[in-house]
Here is the input.
Amino acid sequence: MSEFVAEIIGTMLLVLLGDGVVANVVLNKTKGNGGGWLLINWGWGLGVFIAVATVGPVSGAHINPSVTVGLALGGVFPWAKVGTYITAQMIGAALGAFLVWLSYHDHFKATDDSVAKLGVFSTVPEIRNKKKNFLTEVIGTFVLVYAVFLFAGPSLESPDLRDVEIGLGSIGALPVGLLVGVIGMSLGGPTGYAINPARDLGPRIMHAILPIKDKKGSDWGYSWVPIFGPLAGAGVAAAVYLIFGG
Here is the structure.
């Protein structure tokens, strides 16, 4: 499997499971209807865990343009691969959103709330103040990307051993999933915490083109916030990492 395909699959899984839990909570006549914010955060966090555990050994499971750009700015990922990774992430996010729509097709029909339908696909701020919404996304993404810089796996060093690999397998993906979950629980209230441009833009595009009953606009006037806020947060994280190190 190539890194390009791995990023498509990883981001598709992320959005399928993340947007899927939102659909389960906010759409009518689902088993999880009314499950609440905590269920959504756990769903997103575990979705990240599954995505990272699945494709991490192949591509590093960035599954997020902010992570890709942040690591490149920090000098630990080659700029030559950035465009390929972001393209794959956008494709994967769109595919994941499409699969959520297929899975919950009848429930979209049974739901009249157009804002809830949009919220399945992309973030919607609770209080619309774009400058402050932008700042919230910067802060949340800073936490994510800076922590990714500092996360380290187990190591084993010995002068008598060479080329030894040691790791935690899939469990090594757990810290990233927990990190995303706690960002949502603590910082996600104002905006719904995109912290990932592909996770928001790819599904927003799908919301715009899919034949969803009684949908309204895809709120393109707000769409720049979950794109540039996370990228700015990644830039801040890279700067702090370069200045202070790990």
